[in-house]
Every structure is written in structure tokens, then in C-alpha cells.
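Form 7-S
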Amino acid sequence: MNSNRVGKQSVIFHTAPRILTSAAIAGDMEGEGPIGTYFDMILEDDTWGEDSWEKAERKMYIETVKIACDKAKCDYRKLDCLLGGDLLNQIISANFAARDLGTPYLGLYGACSTMSESLLCCAMLTDGGYLTQSACIAGSHFSTAERQFRFPLELGSQNTATAQRTVTGTGCAIVVSGDNEQKSSEQNSRIYNTVHIVGGTIGKVVDMGITDSNNMGAAMAPAAVSTFTGLLADFNKTADDFDLIVTGDLGRLGGTLFCDMCAELGVDVRNKYLDCGNIVFAESQKVDCGGSGCGCSAVTLCGYLLKRMEEGDFKNAVFMATGALLSPTSTFQGESIPGIAHAIILERR
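Output:
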């Protein structure tokens, strides 16, 4: 039996599970950003006809899964599994969405790293033969995150220079076995992706003692460095072996720290580095250090990056969503902010 383990913390997928389709729904402010034209749907307001922001977030989850499944011409009720999470206490957006969708469900919490965590877990289960067609999803909502982690919006609190804006949006990817190619006459349609998940690296929790919840980019950057350098060592690769290296939501400050810390270790990523938090909003939108939240990497991957890969702009990429593992409870107790980053290797075939 072939081993799927590579090095200390990585895995390789012999069947190379495929991202069949993807979909993204985003808020109105995100829709006005540099990649807004890539999203499947843009909300006109942040409640989307619901009576609370939290219910609007749940609705985004449900509708994003349905859009992705419609593209794949599959019934969402026949999915093998839904793997996903969000930022709210006990991942309630994902939990209640799974209830309403009626699908088998694995709830995941990796903070803002949840999108890559869900894809990594799903790829392992698919490569192992336990799943054949599943949905991976993550999302967040600016107003729900502010209510939980910071201050009520009604206070009109001023942001610090290092703060980031939580993205309102959800991204969903339908993952199938790499051996499960479409046999219909529509096999070559642009609706089906040719992007495969060929490997991944499970991140370690890294804590540098940062306690400022408005400086999460700095808290997460060391974890991203740890995961990326671990990936390079395990797969015996260099940064030059990849067309694009993507982090989830380090923002401008965290992204700069990531590049600087990699350079100190002799790894130069600057010419091929992209952070989702730095492209989801334009600088003119005045969101301080960029975007953040589970939805940041999710909408960027599912709405933008996969389409760029399909268009042939790059052949392979490391997608590494990053998460700050804090909670209101840990903050009130004066705890520092641990960081985590999980990585997957995407390849266009």
C-alpha cells in the first residue's frame, strides 16, 4: 500500500481529488472591490431580507452550496458530506445551514483558516475512498463578527491602523475523486474545473505572544511561515516550483511580515506572493490593513483564484488560509493569540 505521508506534517494524494465547481457570494462592499466581478452573487444589503445578520450569514451558506451544486449539475441533497465552518460561537452558521440542507456534515473550526482546512480534510477523505462528491465551505459576515469579537456597530468605534475588515461572503467548492471524470457531453464545458488538490500540509499552532486583537496579521504570519517552510521541506520543493503562493488574510502588515520572515530563512516569495486580504478590497475603500475572516480566503479562492487557474494564468499554487485562534473568552482572560495555517497544493491539469 502506498503511503500518503510526506515528511513531518504533509500528505500527498495519489488520486489527486478534483475541484469540480466553485461558487462565491459576497457583500456589497466586497462586490465593489478589485475582484468583485468574479463573484456569483453580490448582496444589496447586509441582512439579505432576514431579520438578523446571523440569519443572513446562514442564508449565504445555503445559497452558495446550491449555486456550486447547480454548476456541477448535482443535487445538494445527494452530497456525501458538507465540510465547513465559520467564526460564530459553536460555528452556528454552518451548523444550521447543514440542518436546512439535510446533508451529512462535518463541522470544522480553524478560524480564518477554515477554507483550506476543509479542503485538506475533504481531499484526505476523498483520496482514501471515503467520499466521492462533497462540498467544502467557509464564510463570515462583517456585522456578526464585529458583534461577537469587537464592539457593537452602534458605538461607531474607531479602528487602529493595523485593523482589518471582516469579509462578508461565503465560498464553496465541490470536490470529487480525481478518478471521477465527467462522462457527459458537457465534460469539456468551462463550468467544470480542471484544478486538482495534489497535496497539503497540516499546520502547527504558533504563538508569538501577541495580544492585540486588532493586529491579527502579525499574530498569524509566523504560523504561515511555519507551514510554508514545512511544506517546502516535506515535498523537497523551493518557492520557485510554484507559480503562486497565497495566504488567507494576513493583510498588508501581516503579508509584509510573512515575506520578511521567509527571506530571513532564505526563502524568497515576493515575486509570486498574494494575500487574499490585500485584493478583496481596494485601498480607496479605506479598510485599514485589508480584509479578514473565514470568508476572505473562501470568496477569493472560489470566486477568483480557481477561475484564474482555469484561464491558464498559472499552473500550480499553494493556497494557505490563515487563522487567529482567539475567542472572546480567551481575550477577556488576557490570553495571547495563537495562529494556524493549513496549506493545499493546487495543480491545473
